[in-house]
Structures are given as C-alpha cells and as structure tokens.
User: Fold this.
Amino acid sequence: MPHNKEITVSIITATFNSENTLRDTLSSVAAQDYPLIEHILVDGLSKDNTLSIAREYGHLAKIISEKDAGIYDAMNKGIQACTGDIIGILNSDDFYVSNTIISQVVEQMLNEQTDTLYGDLVYVHPEQTNRVLRTWIAGACKPNKFLFGWMPPHPTFFVRRKVYDQLGVFNISLKSAADYELMLRCLYKEKVSVSYLPQVLVKMRAGGMSNASIRNRIKANAEDRQAWRVNQLQPYFFTSWLKPIRKLTQYIRKPDTKL
Assistant:
C-alpha cells in the first residue's frame, strides 16, 4: 500500500509499573508497516522494570519519566511533546491487532478528509490474549447516540493535532471519564469530522479502573454526568446509566474475523 510521505503519526503510551504487559504494546507499534511513526512513552516514575524494557525498543522517539497527576496528565504531556500530524493513544496493556493498523488509519482519514477516526476493540484475557472476552463494535458515529450512552473505544481514537490545538486536551479533573469527556467534546459538542473504520484495531486486556468494582462504576457514572456539565450540555436523565448497560451486549457479540 502506498504511504503518504508527509503525514506523521504520533502514538503516546503512558506507563506506570507496566513491566508485565509493556512488551506487547511496544512490539505492536514497532511492527507497524507505516514508516512515519513517532512513538512517545510517558512514565510516572515506575518502580519496576518498565523503563529498562522501554530502552530495549529503539523505535521509541522519546521517553519521558517524571511524576505526574495520573494517566490523563501523562497523556497530555505526550500530546505536548509529540510532533505528529495525527495523534493516537495506546495504553500500556493494549496492542494493535496487526501491523497494518496505522496505514489503514492514515489512508481512511486522508480519503475521507476527516479530523478524527475510531474503530472497534476487543477485550482479551490478561494472560491468554487470543481469548476474546468482550467485543466492542462501535458502529458509525451519529452524534445523538451519545445521548443513549454511546461512545467510541478510546484506544482506537485518532485525532489530528489541530483538534487538540483548537479544542484542548484531556480534563485531568476527571479521573476515569476524561477520555469520554474528550470524545463528547469533540464529536458531540463541536461536531468534529469523524471516520469509522469498521474492524477491530486494538486488543485491550480486560480490567480497568471504571469497571473494577460496583463502587468504581458508581464513581464513573458520576464522572460521566460531570463530563456533560463541564461542556454545558444536557443529557437525558438515563444517559449515564445506559452507558454501562450498553456494555452488556459486548459479551455476546463476536468479532467478524478471527483475531
């Protein structure tokens, strides 16, 4: 597939004590067939072997290791440090499903002339990463779907740098819903142009702070409502409750292709 020689893609990975999963993340970026990738790792002063593992990967353009105020603060540091035209976020326990993902992302964003893009995602067993536990088929973006609890999977969300420049970065006052707030702000409030790539782009190991317990889910639900308030938007009374309910369908859906 021909490459656009002018479009640089920055991938940001935030880490903190990520030694058990980081190799999969870094290897999946290093294996991409797109030639213009700037991969930046932002570490929150890990106490394990995270940094020594990172230094084994020569493709990393920059490693930042300093105290931060949480994962979204680390992501913001990565956005500020990167130089790419298109920016993606890949968490340290996630990885791309093939070596053509970034090529496909760039091609579709160029062909459709959009400023953002997202695709589908699967949750996999933490150790047996070929074992799919949940399938997140996002579907095409219709902004009003946000009112019914919809959101795209954030690890598949790619954004042109100019969007961050114009609309801002992650709101770090939101501990678990900053990714939701960012996509709500971009796609629902500001109606930024968007492409949907209808295939699985990322494998994510199951588990996460908003899903770890009922108590955390209640906290996340409150933050979801706050995401609407900070944008002066009015959801339906049931919007924040439909969001976790929609996840139930992910346990019965299967990806269209073998991963």
